[in-house]
Specification:
Layout (H helix, E strand, L loop, with lengths): L1 H59 L21 E10 L27 E2 L2 E2 L3 E6 L13 E5 L4 E2 L2 E5 L4 E5 L5 E5 L9 E3 L6 E3 L5 E8 L6 E7 L4 E3 L5 E7 L2 E9 L3 E9 L4 E3 L2 E4 L2
Parallel strand pairs: 1-18, 1-19, 5-8, 7-13
Antiparallel strand pairs: 1-15, 2-3, 4-14, 4-16, 5-6, 8-11, 9-10, 9-12, 12-13, 16-17
Length: 287
Amino acid sequence: MEAVSDRNTARTMCAEISISGKVLEIMNRKLWVVLMGLCSVLGLVLLTACSKKSNEETSSAPSNTMAPAAPAATPIDPATAASITGTVSFAGAAPKMAKIDMSQDPACKGVNMAESVVDDGGKLANVFVYVKSGLGDRTFDVPKDPVTIEQNGCKYHPHVLGVIAGQTIRIVNSDPTTHNIHPTPADNREWNESQPPQAAAIEKTFAREEIMLPVKCNQHPWMRMFVNVVKTPFYAVTGPDGKFEIKGLPPGDYTIAFVQEKLGTQEQKVTLAAKDSKTVDASFKSE
């Protein structure tokens, strides 16, 4: 009898344990569901708060963010403005200008001569002359009018160009053939653009000062010119007679630089008084 009683007791305990296990399992499931629900609610609250903060920051930011205005140009009193004139010469026997063979493109007609050194009776053309220093922190307006580079006779006109940083350069193709304009700067953005005959002018700017920036044509390897990007309007390029003129300078002490693509750079100091007019000549020779 005692054995039977013990078996009944054991069955009862097992049944109770089984029921308790099921109850615990159900409770655990309910707890897991509750915890997941709490996490979802918490995530939704955080997302709403972040979204609200982002919207507040966006709405508080200015709607039209403008680039800082360029500093106003420093005025120069025209009553005291001075000028520099001069002539750049070539000492010794100048190299002969070589004729360029353009036969690779039948559309390139006419006579084309190398322009690396252009000497006419001892006078040197295509020398870039500019005020290198002496203007301090003066600022100058960027001209609204563009300067033009023309491709005509499979040749760049002019061979040497001066431009103020930010000024528009307008490139025109007057030839019956496609050109490919490719500046290769050291301090500015490089670009490479094709221009078919009668295409619209290409307009570009250079943002940084750079002297003797080379420009070539990928279609015609003999085509080459130089753009000089400066910060002031005080520059010039010598003509076939070697002459130049720089006007409108305020009185002061200046360094004038003369740059030639093959012959290098020279510098000279000059002091200008009010209404002064001085002559500053330079002479280059073959190395």
